[in-house]
Design brief:
Length: about 260
């Protein structure tokens, strides 16, 4: 089973790129972020034509998340995180696909820091951590995947000294991510590539992609019941170089049908 994530940075404006990659890679499940489209403008017909069912939560101009499943409809289980009922941002959507709970998320950027946006980011992280703990208690296969807007370590950012005071690399944010992982989640990409400098995002400015001046901010966190099935985790870096591409690249993991290691390892 191939599960992918892609911050598409405007689904209608980059639909051709998305469809091209779906045809090339054929993921079984794909979580999308930054749809930047209201609910009624989601291109469901085009995606169905490509062989994918979908659930989505749109938002005009900003945010927006979706889960696609090849050859089937994802079974919607949740829209939005518990905690702040007044929070109308479209940042979390959850479904069951082939017996796995897929939580697709787009964590707030948090800049400028300090300020209200950074405070909101930390609150959102806490809500995610609280809900993630509940998911772990279910002892079922869970994947929490998407754009976390955090570089967990210095290995995940070019020239880390330049990012010390950025909301994506502030110590409070990295601590929040570490506390989340420490609940019992496996960071899939880092687990299989422990010492590699791997990026999933390259800014449009300062020729960042050509210089490989990137960030690793798109992550897969796996519960023990699915971490034991992890076979591969890769970044489709070449897609970032396509014309009119998102500033993110697609990232994917491959899961075996059966555990490869004991669930508690």
């Amino acid at each position: 089973m191939k599960v992918a994530t892609y911050n598409v940075n405007g689904i209608n404006g980059r639909l051709e790129v998305l469809l091209r990659w779906l045809e090339e890679a054929s993921p079984d499940v794909l979580c999308l972020q930054e749809l930047k489209a209201p609910q009624e403008k989601f291109p469901i017909k085009a995606l169905e034509g490509a062989g994918y069912g979908a659930i989505w939560q749109g938002q005009k101009s900003w945010n927006g998340v979706a889960i696609l499943a090849r050859g089937q409809e994802p079974h919607l289980t949740r829209k939005g995180l518990p905690g702040e009922p007044e929070d109308e941002h479209s940042r979390y959507i959850e479904a069951i696909v082939d017996g796995i709970v897929i939580g697709g998320l787009y964590l707030p950027n948090g800049n400028p820091c300090p300020g209200p946006k950074f405070d909101y980011k930390l609150r959102w992280f806490k809500r995610l951590r609280d809900y993630a703990a509940e998911l772990l208690e279910l002892e079922v296969p869970v994947v929490l995947v998407g754009d976390y807007n955090v570089m967990p370590t210095e290995l995940d950012v070019y020239k880390p000294e330049r990012w010390t005071n950025d909301a994506l690399f502030r110590v409070e944010v990295r601590d929040a991510f570490r506390h989340l992982v420490d609940q019992g989640w496996t960071d899939a990409l880092r687990h299989l590539h422990p010492d590699e400098r791997i990026y999933t995002f390259w800014d449009y400015f300062r020729n960042a992609y050509a210089r490989d001046a990137g960030l690793r901010i798109d992550h897969f966190l796996l519960s023990p019941q699915v971490a034991s099935r992890l076979a591969k985790a890769e970044v489709e870096k070449h897609v970032r170089g396509w014309d009119h591409s998102s500033d993110h690249a697609p990232v994917w993991i491959e899961l075996h049908d059966e555990p490869m290691m004991p669930a508690d390892e």
